[in-house]
Structures are given as structure tokens and as C-alpha cells.
What we know:
The longest helix has 15 residues, at 24-38. Helix content is 40%, strand content 19%. Helix 3 packs across helix 10, helix 4 (61-68) runs parallel beside helix 5 (80-93) and helix 7 packs antiparallel against helix 8. With 273 residues, the protein is of the alpha/beta class.
Amino acid sequence: MTTMTESERFHSGAEKYAGYLATPEGRLRADLAFANLRNFLPPPQPQKSLSALDIGCGTGATAVRLAGLGMHVTLLDSSTAMLEMARRAAREAGVAENIVLQDGDASRLMNSFPDASFDVILCHNVLEYLDDPIPVLRGAARALRNSSAILSVLVRNRAGEVLKAAIQSGDLAGAENNLTAEWGQESLYGGRVRLLTPDSMQAMMKAAALTLTAETGVRVVADYLAPQISRTANYERIFELERKLGSQPEFAAIARYKQYFANRSGPAIEDVA
């Protein structure tokens, strides 16, 4: 999402990504991330709607949900195809008046919005595609409004890629390689994808003047269930099991994805007397 090559990849793969989100796996990832996010949203303000930013918004599925809660949401993406899908989704959900679409590059976030602009910022499945994620995190930190504003980051978890290779693919060599690999292979679009760990996320958050406040696991066991278990018929049961597993550190550690929540370190602009 930062270079022309990445932009073209996501533009040409927009329909493929929308199709993925309609699968049980894609739906589960989105539903779990949103359910986790709701636990950390700032309290509503009595006379002013909360303002949110969705970095790399994709088809706008999560942004539309936030708009449905009454938030004003800015959607940022470098793919015009994705933004058009988001526009249609907002219209169909009846929340278009709460949505602003912006064609832009996540790596230029520092120059895209004024400081202290947003109460909620999402950065879901973006950092793993970037050569240098820290400028995006720094831009997000500056754009958080105050001490109660929250940043939600969803990324590929290295430990989950180890288990995926070993259990799902039977690729023992790949599993061994993923134990230390910084990059893996992305199956939906093709190309490489960054594999992140809690330690690497903690270091990046610190470098971006962010304080990590919580982390949860997303899709701990759903990818490895026996074939006879219908992912569609048992979706609600799988979702509830995943919610329980993802909230427990020993299970979250091996999830396919990790969701991190952070606040700006030190006082934001509005907190300074």
C-alpha cells in the first residue's frame, strides 16, 4: 500500500479480497477484530460524534460498522477500486453521510491529517505489507486526539505462520523456516508478507511513541478444524470459541493474527494545559 507496485496489487485484487471476506475465514477475521475493538472504544461524547480513521480501509467493512455506531469515519486507501467498494457498502448500509473517502498512501500519513484528529484509528492488515511500518505508526500516534484515543493494529503473527505451514500444509521445512523468518509468502495476492512477533510490535510501538495496552489473538484454531466440521453451519460456535481463546495469552500467542491496542505515549495536544 505504499509503493506503486503495492497499490497496483491491491487495485487489481480488490474483487479477490472482497471474495475472501465473504468466506468463513475472512468473515471470522473481520468479525473477531471488530468484536475485540468494541471492548476498547472510547466512551461516546455527549455533544460530539467520535471521529475514526481506517488506514488501508479495503472494502470498508469495518469502517461501515463504526459509522453504524454513529462515528464519523475517514477511509484512507491507495486503491481506487477498494474505495469504490467502500463507497457502495456505505450507501447500502445507509451510513454514507458518516463516511469520508480519501485516496492516499499510508506511508504519508504524517502529512495527510492534522495532529490530534481522531479518537479511533484502525490499521488492520497493513503493516505486514510495508518495508518500513514505523512511519505509519508515528503518523497514527500524532493523529490520535487525546489520552483516551485508541489505535487498533491487526497483523500477521509469526507463530501462526509456523503452525499453518506445519498443520495445514504439512510443510515441515517451511514451519522451521518461519520460526525466524522476517518475511513469508502471501497466498491471496502473491508476493511477500511481513511476519511479526509481540517483541517486534512492542519495539515498533515504542519507536513510534505509542504505549501498548492490550493484545488479543485472532483465529487461533479455526484454520485447523477437522474437515467434517462445517465452517458455515458452526460459525457462531467457532466465533464464540475463538473469542475465548483469543483473550487468553497462552492461546493468543499461536493465533494466525494478533490484534494490538495502543495509546499515544505522553500527553496529546488536547491534554496539554
